Amino acid sequence: MKLKLLTLAMFCGTTALITGCSDNDSKVEIRPIVKEQLADEDKQPTDDKQPTDDKPKDDDKDPEEPKIAEGTLLELRIMETTDLHANLMNFNYFSNKEDNKVGLVKTATLIRQAREAATNSVLVDNGDLIQGSPLGDYMAKIKGLKDGDVHPIYGAMNTLDYDVANIGNHEFNFGLEFLDEAIDDAKFPYISANVFKDDGDDDPSNDVPLFTPYIIKDKQVIDKNGDVQTLKIGYIGFVPPQIMQWDKANLEGQVIAKDIVDMAKHYVPKMKEEGADIIIAIPHSGLETAEKKPLAENASYYLSKVDGIDAIMFGHAHANFPGPRYEGLEAHGVDNEKGTINGIAAVMPGFWGNNLGIIDMTLEYGAEGWQVKDTQSTLEPISITNPDRTVTSLAVNDAQVENAAMAAHGETKTWVNEPFAKISDEVNSYFALVNDDPSIQIVTDAQLWYTQAIVKGTELDDLPVLSAGAPFRAGRGGADDFTAVDKGDIAYRNVADLYIYPNVLKVLKLNGAEVKQWLEMSAGQFNQITPNTATVQVLVNPDFPSYNFDVLDGVSYQIDVTEPARYDTKGNKVSDGNRIKALTYQGKPVTDEQVFLVATNNYRASGGGNFPGISGEKIAVDSPNENRQVVADYISLQSDKTPETGMDPSADGNWSFAPVAGANVVFYSSPSDKATAFSARFAHITPLNQTTENGFAIYQIDLTQPAN
After folding, report:
1. I want to staple 443 with a disulfide (CB 3.0 to 4.6 A). Which of 234, 454, 469, 594 is the partner?
2. Class of domain 419-525+546-652
């Protein structure tokens, strides 16, 4: 069934849109994205030796080569970037302003300085490069890449002499074909040890890696005596196995993903056998100390227990290690001062280029070869935020990176600022975690409109439709990371501000009991509040990602935060708490057996976020259309109905907190004047004119009354 709906040509991408823009949807032929094709002996797991750089054969060795004296010391600096998310320039495309808190153009200066200050150094990148900013979207969805084109990200990185790079989960967001075309111009090798071709035979003994799992590179180094030595450095990379959920539409039937630690235990001994003096693991994976589960997303802690790994350059969590987030983990072997995990050197340098990660390693030569004698992990920031919220840049723009990025940067700025519709009031996410909010309402309304249209005349036509949306920009990236769209003209940067991910719309078929548990999981966003106490209590749980705080429009409900959360952030049931109250559809209580269609995105529909009972098997409408495109189409359509004022973005107030008596409750939000002014619209929200040490404004919320 095809529906001819209003669209904008500039949004037509690589997926077939409801508006008529389409591509050939034939399957992509997979080939290993490596510089050399893997030979038969490279299959996993039986005999998968990997190439080394100019590795000498035994009979090629000079028998007169002098031996290294025991006790010889050398120093090696290992540098890392991670989670750049296409932030090449120090620029915020959403606000259309310079932003000195982000950008490889700044990090590059620190790289060159750190390299100059060290006798021996190597540089790695840990993925999530090509997606995450409007520049990434522009290159993938608007301009595209032809054979021979160099993606500006790689044009910039090629000036920095990277030694190796690892694949991140967001590399798969635009499909394997685009990924292949993007990385084939990188002047450095790519690795990933836990992604394999899907050969469909359920026989792991003949699985072929999609990427080169690891490499061993000969590095010419100078020891403390001033002598030149050859250090064989092994690099091995990993990506969260959850890519098979998050990018199911791009990967299913083409690749499989395996457990990170299992693959480390398989490959690391082989790397040692092949002569690696030291082994650097580059997991695009965060740090959790709980008991390991199969196919763990955040496996860096468990990698520290794999014998043979000497350093862990990790990422994915958009956090700093060493850093305050990881204090108090000494009992788990985490040294937050030295930057080690169970004695293994480790570093994670934030996101968007805001830090350069450095491990300074001292090696000593002994009877067993080169051994790690000492390490120190540090983070070098590109800026500091002053007490008055002004930003001081700590690095000038790197001229080579700036030159490589400038053309695409200019084209992206032009594209994101082209208006196509209007809204009659401002839209922001300052209070999206404590109020029903317009920034979510626009998304859920658009998804509802799309779903009702696409199921019309089908066997699903009579089912009630709900729509799920979450605040993507609600402070996760810092006190300035909030959606803020002025009333008036709407451009693409505003749509990307409302919906930052290139997700694809999916529709699930669920019963009332499953809908309620979905909301119980979302309600884990909040800490448990004790009534009738003067003690200040913080409402929002900072460890619960805001993109998992789903609001379900189409039903009405209250959230009782005096009850304990039923699920933790990983979807594990931790109590019998019953936070969702008064759940109704069209004024009547929702029953467990009632059947609904729920519009959401491919991430959530495939199990992303670990919501109980939510999986790909529940998908009733496997739409090819991007959520962001649906939002753009909807805004345009509604704006055309009232061209003078534009679309009304008001929230419908379908959820609120159940009243709580006598509690002194606060939450944190943007410190901007706009946020303070906007709070005046709500009688239950009061700015306290105070800020946290991270720069967030502190607001008090009166839970004795519902939201206005």
Report:
1. 469
2. alpha beta
Sole residue written with tokens 């909010």: 437
| 634-646 pLDDT per residue, tens | 998 999 999 999 9
Strand pairing partners for 356?
Answer: 380
Backbone phi and psi for residue 231, each to the nearest 5 degrees, phi listed first: -105, 125
Q: Across 343-398, where does the E strand assignment appear?
A: 344-349, 355-366, 369-381, 383-385, 391-393
* Burial bucket for residue 208 (CB in 10 Å: 0-12, 13-18, 19+): middle
CB 28 within 8 A of CB 181: no
* Cα dihedral sign, 106-108-109-111: positive
- The average confidence (pLDDT) of the chain is 89
Please report the pLDDT score of residue 366 as a whole number: 95
Strands 355-366 and 344-349: unpaired
Domain 72-411 matching CATH 3.60.21.10: the answer reads yes
Cα–Cα separations (whole angstroms), residue 67 to 58, 64, 72, 216, 359: 15, 9, 11, 21, 28
Give the up-direction half-sphere exposure of residue 178: CA atoms within 13 A in the CB hemisphere.
25
Burial string for 57-81 (b: 16+ CB within 10 Å, else e) reads: eeeeeeeeeeebeeebebbbbbbbb
Tokens standing for 150? 């160099």
Domain segments of the chain: what residues? 72-411, 419-525+546-652
Cα separations (Å) of 377 from 48, 143, 289, 327, 646? 32, 40, 19, 15, 53
- The encoded tokens of residue 82 equal 């991670």
Rg (alpha carbons) of the chain, rounded to whole number: 26
Of the candidates 130, 187, 190, 107, the one whose C-alpha atom is nearest the C-alpha of residue 358 is 107
Asked whether 261 and 306 are in contact (CB, 8 A), the reply is yes
Pair 285, 260: CB distance under 8 Å: yes
CA separation for the pair 171, 702 (Å, rounded): 43
pLDDT in tens, 549-579: 999 999 999 999 999 999 999 999 999 999 9
CB 687 within 8 A of CB 667: no
CA angle, residues 265, 269, 270, in degrees to nearest 5: 115
* H-state helical runs in 342-484: 399-416, 438-455
CA 599 to chain centre: 22
